[in-house]
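User: Predict the structure for this protein chain, please.
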Amino acid sequence: MDQESKSFSQQLRQRMSVVEKRDWELWTLALMIMAALAFGLFIVLIPSVFLGQDTIQVQATLSPQLILGLLVLVIMLLAYLTHKQLQIRAMRFQSIQEVWNSQMSHVQLLIDPLTKALNRAALEEILSKEIMRAQRNQTTLVFLYVDINDFKQVNTRYGHLSGDLVLTEVGGLLKQCVRGSDYVIRMGGDEFLVALVDTDEAGADVVKHRINQSTAQWSQTSPLPGFTLSLSVGLQMFDGSKSFDEVLAAADSRMYEEKKKHSAVSGT
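Assistant: Here is the predicted structure, written as structure tokens:
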């Protein structure tokens, strides 16, 4: 999710630059007022400084109304600066919250609501960037195309709610078998795509074995009597000389080879 984090940081930086500009304007105003007061004091002291006097005598006759007015002016100035500072703090918090909410809303658009895996929209937005990163850094990328065996029988025999349960369980199972840096995408129906980042073919075989073990463990405590969960998994290394569609088609083809083997063994 490096690209998403980068996008989040860029948006936040843009919003915060506006807030910081307001903050600098406020401090500039305060400094200008302080400079004006210092200049006024300096004007009073100039005669004594240039005349070489050892002591400075200041005589002034001020009415109570003038003193009160000056105090009120100073208090109003301090209140204004404090109010503006609180506004800037609120703007800073609001900017962070709005950018975060916007980013989370965008992420939700990429999530399949049933399985909580990524949906097909993530292919264009996320995987295309991972492919470019793999090409740029010459790193490895492996795809696992996954299909649930005999899934139609689940809907027919147990009902569509049970089918949704199996899809949800498979989505969770796949996510448990991969790392946080990998991607699990529901392609549609009972098909999933797993993208293993910075993984070679040997590492992908380990993940595939882990998936098969997890499905076997799930079947031992299956909530659907008589149903054994099994998955057909097609493994395909990313080849920079081919397009993503070609690599995906190759993974899909290998998955169907696995599915044919399952059908031959089970007699379905």
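The radius of gyration is 34 Å.
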